[in-house]
């Protein structure tokens, strides 16, 4: 397969820009690369994590127990025409439509860049009137969330007063970004100068890793905030089993406190970490 790719690229590079077959060949190379990247994802085995990834993972274990697992992901761009491996749940066509319209930011939201990702394994629960808790009531993030609420860093409007202080539900996307993620990154000792970051899970990453290893992320009837912005004031959210599971995506005001919407952090580390 690698030889085929090199051969196609060699032919492509030899064609003048105005050659009538160039566009068709470019599409063929693109499709090949998509299939090859998705094949690698589908066949992904445990890779040997570099020292810095193991260091951050160990810090996480000391602070949060067995909350995270390290996953190596290659660069892959997903498209509405992408041929997924058998059994995979594809991205929602609405996502590509709004991305093309320029409503979703960043513009590269359909591309997953090569990285090491620490994936939060804590189970998102089914809806229970806002009283539901991640991790079957034993959420490793509960202490930090209770602290943020007690300090007023997370607003508790009247319709969320019944939500437990340790809950990931009822936080706005703005509060997750502005209050929780900086605290969490500090707890993990992440280094921004090395390109290390804590974020809510981007939709494409949620879909791909969910398909690869964690289908349960799309098997509960609650949502989670995604990383992508929609327009000026909204944020993507998804994952509801009633609306498509791993393919589910919608948008909501980033300042809303919804007792059906939680979040999961993703720790993204450079591939050479």
UniProtKB/TrEMBL annotation:
Organism domain of life: Bacteria
Name of the protein described by the UniProt record: Sulfatase-modifying factor enzyme domain-containing protein
Source organism (scientific name): Candidatus Roizmanbacteria bacterium RIFCSPHIGHO2_02_FULL_43_11
């Amino acid at each position: 397969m690698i030889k085929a790719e090199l051969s196609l690229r060699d032919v492509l590079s030899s064609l003048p820009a105005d050659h009538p077959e160039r566009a068709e060949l470019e599409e063929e190379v693109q499709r090949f690369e998509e299939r090859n990247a998705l094949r690698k994802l589908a066949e992904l085995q445990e890779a040997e994590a570099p020292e810095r990834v193991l260091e951050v993972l160990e810090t996480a274990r000391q602070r949060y127990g067995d909350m995270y697992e390290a996953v190596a992901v290659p660069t892959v761009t997903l498209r509405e025409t992408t041929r997924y491996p058998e059994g995979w749940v594809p991205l929602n066509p609405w996502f590509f439509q709004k991305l093309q319209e320029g409503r979703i930011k960043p513009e590269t939201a359909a591309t997953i860049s090569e990285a090491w990702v620490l994936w939060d394994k804590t189970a998102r629960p089914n809806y229970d009137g806002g009283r539901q808790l991640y991790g079957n009531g034993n959420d490793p993030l509960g202490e930090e969330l209770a602290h943020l609420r007690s300090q007023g860093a997370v607003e508790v409007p009247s319709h969320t007063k019944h939500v437990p202080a340790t809950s990931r539900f009822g936080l706005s996307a703005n509060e997750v970004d502005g209050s929780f993620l900086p605290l969490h990154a500090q707890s993990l000792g992440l280094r921004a100068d090395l390109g290390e970051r804590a974020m809510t899970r981007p939709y494409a990453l949620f879909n791909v890793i969910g398909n690869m290893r964690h289908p349960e992320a799309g098997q509960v009837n609650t949502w989670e905030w995604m990383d992508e912005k929609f327009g000026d004031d909204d944020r993507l959210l998804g994952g509801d089993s009633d609306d498509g599971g791993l393919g589910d995506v919608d948008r909501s005001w980033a300042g809303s406190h919804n007792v059906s919407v939680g979040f999961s952090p993703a720790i993204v580390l450079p591939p050479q970490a």
